[in-house]
């Protein structure tokens, strides 16, 4: 099905359209200085394509939450939820093709990058049967894919950059079409920008940005000056979804607007100076009562229900119900079989989750429990050699809830050795359970966990290392480096 989106007027007033099907296959990069009309362009694209394709918007400033009313997008305020809940939302979004706005407003830079990385990675790792076509719009993309080191931890920067690279480089086969917008091409990682085949370049003034924009548009350097002269809301477009040659587009009108607008001059107060001084230096009144507390955020379970309305219950098949113990035994056997598979360490989590579901069904469990995040936690515990999770292990799992999923296995491996008083695991063992052959990566990961005060590493005078879990008082036996 071919859907042509009217983006605005070209030279001579003729309508310029964008082929939505081609856009899904070739991705889009939008660039322009602040005030050039990038958000207006994205809003036009979203409004005109709504109803034809699923839309997922990563919104660092909360500008696109107004899409919720007229177009039915669900808004997820990331500041109200944990990283694991964000991952669950992303998984449900892909399964049920819900259009959403991930509002990152209220988080600091590192929080925004961490949240966006987890969200985009969960979209990317959805099971194959959920690879439906979707536009993934990332505004201010230079925040999530910086060209140089950002003022955040290296681990967070790498995770965010990796998620953006996956979206733009490998997302097409999974149905994800990246649409990224940036103020500065020079601040955006080149391997992320280079994967787009369609470009809409707005007004910019710095020579380095004009030169990169001209290169992407296939223009000579001397022609780059015209990018500086573009009017607000006018963009130079090139790409298979728009035009085979650079063409100027004046973006058309939109129906919704951002919560914040451009500053507008208003008259200054006309009161006489004496009156203003009286107002400024009047006695301070008693403090007003504090405002009522803000409404509580919507529980994650309710958000999940809104993203995936439950269908009417179907009549249960005539199959004898299993007890909780029988279900748990099947889950444990499935996880153990995955851990014993030598190829499992190199397979992506989404593929392992599918393997787990198939194994459970082959053992007679028609509806395997555990969603992808819960499966990842149980698999990490199984890889660390944990059996039944007693109360102390449940507390240890809760203690590590803020760690990225891929680090949980290494934490539990060390915690098991510490609890049982066994020798401290070697760097090779930590690297294997982390899914890498690089000892350097394993060391950086262990240092990251220690920075979160989950480990205390001690090296005695003879060079032997031991690790303590201070919250529980568990300590490994010292082992030589």
Walk me through the structure:
An eleven-stranded mixed β-sheet has the order 2-1-11-10-9-3-8-7-4-6-5. Residues 315-319 have low confidence and may be disordered. It has 18 helices and 15 strands. The protein is 40% helix and 15% strand. It is of the alpha/beta class and 481 residues long. Helix 5 runs parallel beside helix 6.
Number of domains: 3
CATH architecture verdict of the largest domain: 3-Layer(aba) Sandwich
Q: Structural class, from helix and strand content? A: alpha/beta
Q: What's the rounded overall pLDDT mean?
A: 82
In total, the number of strands is 15
What is the CATH C level class of the largest domain, in words?
A: Alpha Beta
| Largest β-sheet summary | 11 strands, mixed
Enumerate how many helices there are, as a single number: 18
Distance between the termini: 62 Å
Nearest-angstrom radius of gyration? 27 Å
Give the name of the CATH superfamily of the largest domain.
P-loop containing nucleotide triphosphate hydrolases
Query: What is the 3D form?
Result: globular
Would you tell me which CATH topology of the largest domain applies?
Rossmann fold
**Strand portion, in percent?**
15-25%
Helix content: 40-55%
Sequence of strands across the biggest β-sheet: 2-1-11-10-9-3-8-7-4-6-5
Low-confidence stretches: 315-319
